[in-house]
Amino acid sequence: MQRIYEPENLMEGELLQQMLASEGIEAHLVGRHLLGGTGELPIFGLLGLEVENHQASCARELITAYIGAQPMPSDDPDNVPDVLVC
């Protein structure tokens, strides 16, 4: 197993874990149970996504592409008339 990414928080870690699962890569989110002790433990580096060694390169590429993704032009609320934006 290789640690391929350190998410900023639990929500990001779970989101990326599910994104990898949708691509057929089983990722393990380690450190999630340590978050309850953040008052006692240093808060950096507790969470990590780990995958099997042979899937590490592909998983890193998917995470990099996912994080760097930009919204599609049609997702811009200014391009859609009569849409209430809250």
UniProtKB/TrEMBL annotation:
This is Putative signal transducing protein. Residues 1-65 form the DUF2007 domain. It comes from Pseudomonas mucidolens. It comes from the Bacteria. It holds the Pfam family DUF2007. InterPro entries: DUF2007.
